[in-house]
From TrEMBL:
<comment type="function">
    <text>Fluoride-specific ion channel. Important for reducing fluoride concentration in the cell, thus reducing its toxicity.</text>
</comment>
<dbReference type="GO" id="GO:0046872">
    <property type="term" value="F:metal ion binding"/>
</dbReference>
<dbReference type="GO" id="GO:0062054">
    <property type="term" value="F:fluoride channel activity"/>
</dbReference>
<comment type="similarity">
    <text>Belongs to the fluoride channel Fluc/FEX (TC 1.A.43) family.</text>
</comment>
<keyword id="KW-1003">Cell membrane</keyword>
<keyword id="KW-0472">Membrane</keyword>
<keyword id="KW-0812">Transmembrane</keyword>
<feature type="transmembrane region" description="Helical">
    <location>
        <begin position="47"/>
        <end position="68"/>
    </location>
</feature>
<dbReference type="Pfam" id="PF02537">
    <property type="entry name" value="CRCB"/>
</dbReference>
<feature type="transmembrane region" description="Helical">
    <location>
        <begin position="80"/>
        <end position="100"/>
    </location>
</feature>
<keyword id="KW-0407">Ion channel</keyword>
<dbReference type="GO" id="GO:0005886">
    <property type="term" value="C:plasma membrane"/>
</dbReference>
<protein>
    <recommendedName>
        <fullName>Fluoride-specific ion channel FluC</fullName>
    </recommendedName>
</protein>
<feature type="binding site">
    <location>
        <position position="91"/>
    </location>
    <ligand>
        <name>Na(+)</name>
    </ligand>
</feature>
<keyword id="KW-0813">Transport</keyword>
<keyword id="KW-1133">Transmembrane helix</keyword>
<dbReference type="GO" id="GO:0140114">
    <property type="term" value="P:cellular detoxification of fluoride"/>
</dbReference>
Amino acid sequence: MTVLLAILALLAVGVGCGLGAVARWGIHEGFSKLVSSRGSSSILVEVVPWPTVIANVLACFVLGIVVTRIGAEPTGSLRYLFLLLGAGLCGGMSTLAGAARDVVQLARRGTPVLAVGYLLVTVAVGMGALWVGVLVTQGTGATGGA
């Protein structure tokens, strides 16, 4: 790989990751404003870290579309699109570190069963969202090699 192509790859991942991180932040801010404007005080809203769940599930869904549409290991110019959307956008939007932080916080609050359940549900729902993205995209006939 030439230096120019390496720089292009780095830029694709960096720009995508930045957009994904901004999307994750927007989900958190939007959810917080929605909950506060409705005055929700449900234990489910207060205890479960929904913004992280939403960001992770959405990122997995989009990744399912990306890998179905352009392939999991594309070549040529599609490689840079995958780096932008798959590695960058989806990687920046999803956050295993955020989910891990949430698990620790739930456990420290004295809810270890909820912490373990949250971890299992996060992984299961994320993988389910990935497959829904794959199936939705395959249903349109727009597959690229996944």
